[in-house]
Design a protein that fits this description.
single chain; mainly beta; Pectate Lyase C-like; 19-stranded parallel β-sheet; 6-stranded mixed β-sheet; elongated; disordered N terminus
């Protein structure tokens, strides 16, 4: 069975290589310098042929490291990694993605600066930078949302998603990415993948520049990552197969969209996912699930998470919800997935909107648990409140009173030591209520040690 793509926008990744002193040992992997194959490293001339020749030679020798010596800027079209080859970009070296459509393969799904297909043990590391030169793809800059170039002349992609990405691993396994910075992607990652110590810097006003997309991929570990980007930061998707055994820990996230988001591509199941010790700042949405295509979610833990969520322009999905769990059919006639056995433990937030838990008639939310959760509500931006955002599909944007928790179509919700704090002086103009729900759609509620308080 084919494995699925692991997609990266801009990331700093840690690959588990031996320490420098070990590199001189007889057991160390062979090193192939791209300079020995003719790379100029001046940022003006394309070094694609030299880099690819070094990769091919490394693979033919049984694997090792392909080195981009520092200092240097290496301009390239798509580089195709091979099994056993680690692209080593040290501090002071940059791999620059080309900005011409001809720099990339004909099929849009393969538009990556670095692409590994059907590989085992390939990776990226070194402490340097891969830069997609995303600014070159901005047609009209906007503080609300940039308008981006679209290479959709072939008809196999649409709108502002027709742009190249930075790093992609497709139908691959044993992927290792560490100590690398992925910078300025124009757009937005297999089995047994480790993503460690990765820094991602995407333009805050650019759409579709996700941080890490885990698409149809299993047994993935993301740890010690810093993600600062415009669109979704960590985003599991199930387009052609399930996503299971994903762990994300010790990460810092800032995004104009959703920090952790399941979907919205959700045709298959999500199972056994853990998110722990994560800090989220100034996100449009904190923890989100957009289940729209019939897949189910089960056995998910969010723990030890601190976040701050706020409003941005409504052209971005989200309305400042710290927690947003939804399932509904994307289109009339679509199957409705379910979400069950999800736990939120040791969570704190400061937010401009409340928790939004919305199942659907045939896609209930089941067995949710909130334990040791501290929710503070206050307003500090001037964007319009009083809206719930169901996008994509469903009911789109709906006017609604603001609730500390808004609940619909739920069977089994346990509240244990949950505090809601409403900031005095910031409530002017709010039409708020601690709990909003339609009783006919809810059963199995359990409240223990729950408080709603006005605070300074």
């Amino acid at each position: 069975m084919a494995l699925s793509p692991l997609l990266l926008a801009a990331v700093s990744v840690l690959l588990l290589l031996p320490p420098p002193q070990a590199a001189q040992s007889a057991a160390s992997p062979r090193v192939f310098s791209v300079v020995d194959y003719g790379a100029a490293g001046d940022g003006a001339r394309y070094d694609t042929a030299a880099i690819q020749a070094a990769v091919n030679a490394c693979a033919a020798a049984g694997g090792g490291r392909v080195l981009l010596p520092a200092p240097g800027d290496y301009l390239t079209a798509t580089v195709h990694l091979r099994s056993g080859v680690v692209l080593d970009v040290p501090p002071g070296a940059r791999l620059l993605g080309g900005t011409r459509q001809g720099d990339y393969p004909p099929e849009s799904r393969r538009w990556y600066v670095v692409l590994a297909e059907n590989t085992t043990g390939a990776g990226v590391a070194g402490g340097g930078e891969i830069n997609g030169q995303g600014g070159a793809f901005v047609v009209t800059p906007s503080d609300q949302k940039n308008i981006m170039v679209s290479w959709n002349t072939t008809g196999d992609c649409e709108g502002d998603e027709c742009r190249p990405r930075l790093v992609g691993f497709i139908d691959s396994k044993d992927v290792r990415i560490h100590d690398i910075t992925l910078n300025q992607p124009a757009y937005w990652w297999c089995d047994n993948s480790v993503i460690r110590n990765v820094s991602i810097y995407g333009d805050f006003d650019t759409p579709n520049n996700d941080g890490i997309d885990i698409e149809d991929s299993n047994n993935t570990v993301i740890t010690d990552c810093h993600i600062d980007t415009g669109d979704d930061a960590i985003c599991p998707k199930s387009s052609t197969g399930p996503v299971y055994n994903l762990t994300a820990t010790n990460c810092w996230i800032r995004t104009k969209s959703c920090a952790i988001k399941f979907g919205s591509a959700s045709f298959f199941n999500f199972e056994r996912l853990l998110f722990d010790n994560i800090t989220i700042v100034d996100a449009h949405r904190g923890l989100g699930m957009q289940i729209r295509d019939g897949g189910n979610v089960s056995d998910v833990m969010f723990s030890n998470i601190k976040m701050r969520t706020r409003y941005y322009h409504p052209s971005w999905w989200g309305r400042a919800e710290p927690i947003y769990i939804t399932t509904c059919p994307r289109h009339p006639g679509y199957k409705e997935g379910t979400i069950s056995d999800v736990r939120f433990i040791n969570i704190s937030s400061v937010s401009e909107n409340g928790v939004f838990l919305a199942g659907s008639r045939h896609g209930l939310l089941r067995n949710l648990k909130f334990e040791n959760v501290d929710l503070t509500y206050k307003r500090w931006t001037n964007y319009t409140g009083g809206l719930y955002d169901y996008r994509p599909g469903c009911q789109e944007m709906v006017k609604h009173r603001t609730g500390g928790m808004m609940l619909e179509h739920i069977s089994g919700l346990e509240i244990d030591n949950v505090k809601m704090r409403w900031s005095k002086g910031s409530l002017k103009g709010w039409d708020v209520n601690p709990l909003l729900f339609r009783p006919s759609t809810i059963d199995g509620l359990s409240f223990h040690d729950w408080q709603s308080l006005d605070v300074q």
